[in-house]
Amino acid sequence: MDDLLELDDQLDPEHRLIRDSVRELVSGKVLPHVGEWFEQGTFPARELAPALGSLGLLGMHLEGYGCAGLDAVSYGVACRELEAGDSGLRSFVSVQGSLAMFPIWKYGSDEQKEEWLPRLASGEAIGCFGLTEPDYGSDPAGMRTTAKQDPSGDWILNGAKMWITNGSIADVAVVWARTDEGIRGFVVPTSTPGFSSAEIHRKLSLRASITASLYFDDVRLPASAVLPGVAGLKGPLSCLTEARYGILWGVVGAGRACLEAAVDYATTRVQFGKPIGAFQLTQEKLAWMAVSLGQAGLTALHLGRLKDAGKLKPHQVSFGKLANVRAALDIAREARTVLGANGVTLEYPVIRHMTNLESVLTYEGTQEVHLLTLGKALTGLDAFR
Known about the structure:
Blueprint: H1 13-30, H2 34-40, H3 45-54, H4 72-85, H5 87-107, H6 110-122, E1 127-130, E2 146-149, E3 155-165, E4 172-179, E5 182-189, E6 195-199, E7 211-221, H7 234-268, E8 270-271, E9 274-275, H8 280-308, H9 314-339, H10 350-360, H11 367-379
Parallel strand pairs: 1-4
Antiparallel strand pairs: 2-3, 3-7, 4-5, 6-7, 8-9
Pfam families: Acyl-CoA_dh_1, Acyl-CoA_dh_M, Acyl-CoA_dh_N
Cofactor: FAD
Keywords: FAD, Flavoprotein, Oxidoreductase, Transit peptide
């Protein structure tokens, strides 16, 4: 009984069907193994991608080219159920759909769309998104990766990107680079000479996720590799807005998984002659966790409806990402205390979600970036510089 507000009753039958289908996939293919993947620092992307594609989850909010063309609430509900399994699973789907496929779909040429979108939608191909650099995370305008056109018209790409989900397993990378005409996006097959990647190890968060650095050493690309439909930071920032929307739904799933684990444990763990859930202090913890989860779910549903109505603004996405990630992280931390020492083992999902959420708090815009975004929306004054 974690949905005290009965929010899912507000979903359409199609949304509930998506919920149940994704939940079944996660229960069957992910939950029995994700603790081991997390412990070993692996993620079977190639094995899972076709199953995700067959359900229409890859680029599900895009139209045409084999994409499902579903509404924003459908995408949100799917992200929620995916992240109830693990943040790494939802990250894979978010990167594929919102960061690799979306810019090609929104800004790409017909040839780029036809070459890549059907393969990415089916899971045959895997994509990644190259924006963050070793020295430029929250300030992408300072990026050092460059692309220069030579007399033949080809682009020569040089530089490096870091913290790239799917980076070492991707077939194609959407890479943002500085050019003489501003920041531009490039569709880069990872088989191109001069492109290399290195997986990042020793992570203590998002361990069931592939994270890599990308390197470009005189990568020669044809003129047709550039995304023709956008120039400047508008391109990558619009992609981040798409991904952040999925996150603000996804973390509701992570929070729910932690609350469910805490309730189950509290009603079965006996101390002092009765279940610990019968003690007032434990019930207070569970009640506050449920309140936070309900508020996060309301925020996600409201923003989903705004997006479907074409009214969602970037600062509202920042509101949702900021508020919901913080709520989910607080729920995970409180759930860990309910489970006591058992809460730090991978026999239960709580510590896995808690450490994952530490990364989710930072990526796709740090907490500080979103706070300043809301401050600017309130005051009209830019505090970033």
